[in-house]
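Repro:
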Amino acid sequence: MLLGHIGHRTPIDTIEEQTIFSWTGGDGHVAGSFARACLCHRQTTTMTSCSRDNDAQAPVAAYFLGSGELGIPVLRNMAENARVKLVGVGTQPDRPAGRKRRLKATPLGDYAGTLGLRPDKPASVNASGFLEQIRALAPELIVVVAFGQLLKEILLNLPTQGCLNVHASLLPRHRGAAPINQAILAGDAKTGVSFMKMDRGLDTGPVYEQVEIGIGQAETADQLEGRLAELAGAHIVDCMWRVCRGGLSEHSQPETGVTYAPKLKKQDGAIEWSSEAQHIERKIRALSPWPRAYCRVAIREKEKRLQLTAATVIDASNAAGIPPGTVLQADESGLVVACGTGTLRVNRLIPEGRSEMSAADFLRGSPLAVSSVIL
């Protein structure tokens, strides 16, 4: 039969529409039925293929969670890029701040308002009400940047592609809440951004990719945070797209090289002059703008707190027998202090209750005697 012959020669899903309707055979009815079946199959196959193509090009539906300034460029690029469908934004609740203890939004919350967005401010992202809200939004991905709450497993598993964390270090180095500060404090030559699939551990999830940058010799934590934020923002949409549309695979973190960066406390700023001068100089940069490295001096028989904001190592060694904290020089060129190893010139500082100034300006109004000791 002609029908069986043609069916043997040509796969159904490759038959042209005009070829189908030109067939004739001994049983015209059967041939016509077969032709209609072939056309129907071809149309169904084409529609399925188009559906797959459309899904592959659809914007990534994503919910954003963030609180700190690190997340601002990430949110900006997610909100502006056509490859992302931003279904919602969440941040930490407003907190009392300042002397008057007025409620203040997070930096990310403030920025979201400039975009015309009204962020959710859940007390707990693991509460049942918030979980139901996320289920209703049905995001493919939750992007998390410096948010400040732990996400439990039920939330981690809600998005079809899980939760993507943007961490400001080259994992597994500096896991934890203060990776930028610790990178400077440790004297690292480089750092970067890790795009990681979150799991139940503390920054232990597998990593999709990392982007690295060098750390400047005089760079402070807030300066480095600004550069890392822009780096994360420049790469976030491409990473999201490849995770959800391009099959980007994650890879387990190495078991070696793990370090931790715990959350900073105010008392972490206390300077120990018995440390190396290089370490104290890094500490001043690492703790800027918070909690600030500080020491205490006696001024007119009153102990005052000095926050140090800029310093220079002027000698990597130290003369034997000079107690750490001893003032070696206090004049127009600055304040020079002996350390456990080396000496440090303090260039800028913030006296208690006053604004930032040069060390020379401070010494004009509050002279310190050479050989006196700073605590």
